[in-house]
Amino acid sequence: MTATVVARRQSVPLEETVQLRIPGPTPIPGPVREAMARQMINHRGPEFAELIGAVTRRLKGFFQTSNDVLLLTASGTGALEAAVVNTLSPGDRVLAVSIGVFGDRFAEIARAYGADVVSLSISPGQAADPDVVKRALATSGPFKAVLVTHNETSTGVTNDVEAIAQVVHESDALLLVDAISSVGSIELKTDDWGCDVVLTGSQKGWMVPPGLAMVSVSAKAWEAYQTARLPRFYWDLGKARSYLERGQTPATPALSILFALDTALELMEREGMAEIFARHRRCGDRTRNGVKALGLELFADEAHASDTVTAVKVPNDLDAARLLQVLRAEGVVLAGGQGAQAGKIFRIGHLGWISEADIDEVLAALARAMPLARRVPASR
Ligand SMILES: Cc1ncc(COP(=O)(O)O)c(C=O)c1O
Q1: Of all atoms in ligand 1, which is nearest to the CA of residue 151?
Q2: Cα 42 to chain center, whole Å?
Q3: How many CB atoms lie within 10 A of CB 303?
Q4: Pairing between strand 157-158 and 151-152?
Q5: Alpha-carbon distance 31 to 219, whole Å?
Q6: Is the CB–ligand 1 distance for residue 349 below 6 Å?
Q7: pLDDT reported for residue 379
Q8: With a cut of 70, which residues of the chain have pLDDT below it?
Q9: What's residue 376's pLDDT?
Q10: Mean pLDDT for the chain?
Q11: Buried (b) or exposed (e) across 72-108, using 16+ Cβ within 10 A?
């Protein structure tokens, strides 16, 4: 499967072949794009009930859960907010394990709603050590919830959520997992690992445009929902669940994105979950090995490097902005660093519709671009 993307923009009248390799939005296969051209349907009618039923069933397979899985018309951040407002009350103590920008965002949301957030910030590029989490739980607890990012897209690091879940389960805390750039691409066993809330966004490994977020909710999280007192309306998951029982959503859903998701899930089922994970692993390995072969250094601790996004250090003699610009002119779109890592790293997304051939194209373009992005030594 090669994912040569044909993008049409008003400002670029010719068809342009682009390797879009940012960690979301990701390229979209033809059948998924075609699904979005479908005529609208009544979102309160039987066709929609069938659609949301089928999508939800399929999502449960990829979430590896028998918990409720609910759809929100939102980007991933909406699902982070939903996780917070449906389980917490003002003043609840929360341990926010952050290994980067998105871990910080989860903490910020909880803080914005009035939770008493204790941040456990791990050095960027590193994963959270379960023993360190255990110590924080013991010394600063008890906590109502632990927030953790499965795959930190800003640094290219995957946390060992299975091991973190084990230490969290030694306490009474809920485990809320940002799996926006992992579930469906990297193994995440929601039920076996005991993750109470797991959430993702359509524009990541699902090969669908942005616009839908998916959230799984355990029985323990529903119990918390009953007593949670943070304000909620659009993000009310209880309302989403009761509408789902009737084959509906509380508000008008992003129908075209749902058509796309239905088709993408069909493609994913055809490939099989084990093969999808293996393909992401192969693409991750190929990216890391290729980058190192070019003399570049990985930003992430390689023992925890992500199979959906690779962060690469920009050496002193390279201009990061120029590098991305040269690559773009060649039709390869990569992502820069975020927050404190801006200008210091660049990121290669390898999730969703991606093959090893795509990785080879990106690496070849990178090899050609590097000499053109060297800093000019200051003249004396
Ligand atoms: C791990 C993670 N968390 C949160 C987000 C935020 O999601 P969104 O931009 O869809 O709101 C992203 C998006 O890149 C992400 O990768």
Answers
A1: 1
A2: 30
A3: 10
A4: antiparallel
A5: 36
A6: no
A7: 66
A8: 1-16, 378-380
A9: 81
A10: 95
A11: bbbbbbbbbbbbbbbbbeeebbbbbbbbbbbbbbbbe
pLDDT of residue 377: 73
**Ligand 1 close to Cβ of residue 104 (< 6 A):** no
pLDDT score for 378: 67
Token pair in block for residue 270: 């055809």
Q: Quick one: three-class SS letters along the chain?
A: CCCCEEEEECCEEEEEEEEECCCCCCCCCHHHHHHCCCCCCCCCCHHHHHHHHHHHHHHHHHHCCCCEEEEEECCHHHHHHHHHHCCCCCCCEEEEEECCHHHHHHHHHHHHCCCEEEEEECCCCCCCCHHHHHHHHHHHCCCCEEEEECEECCCCEECCHHHHHHHHCCCCCEEEEECCCCECCECCCHHHHCCCEEEEECCCCCCCCCCEEEEEECHHHHHHHHHCCCCCCCCCHHHHHHHHHCCCCCCCCCHHHHHHHHHHHHHHHHHCHHHHHHHHHHHHHHHHHHHHHCCCCECCCHHHECCCEEEEECCCCECHHHHHHHHHHCCEECEECCHHHCCCEEEEECCCCCCHHHHHHHHHHHHHHHHHHECCCCCC
Crossing angle of helices 356-369 and 320-329, rounded to 10°: 120
To test the ligand 1 pocket, which listed residue (180, 212, 257, 310) has its Cβ within 8 A of the most ligand atoms?
180
Query: Which tokens in the block code for residue 178?
Result: 């940002």
Confidence at residue 17, expressed as pLDDT on a 0 to 100 scale:
77
| Contact (Cβ atoms closer than 8 angstroms) between residue 342 and residue 324 | no
| Atom of ligand 1 lying closest to residue 75 CA | 10
Q: What does the pLDDT look like over 84-101, one tens digit per residue?
A: 999 999 999 999 999 999
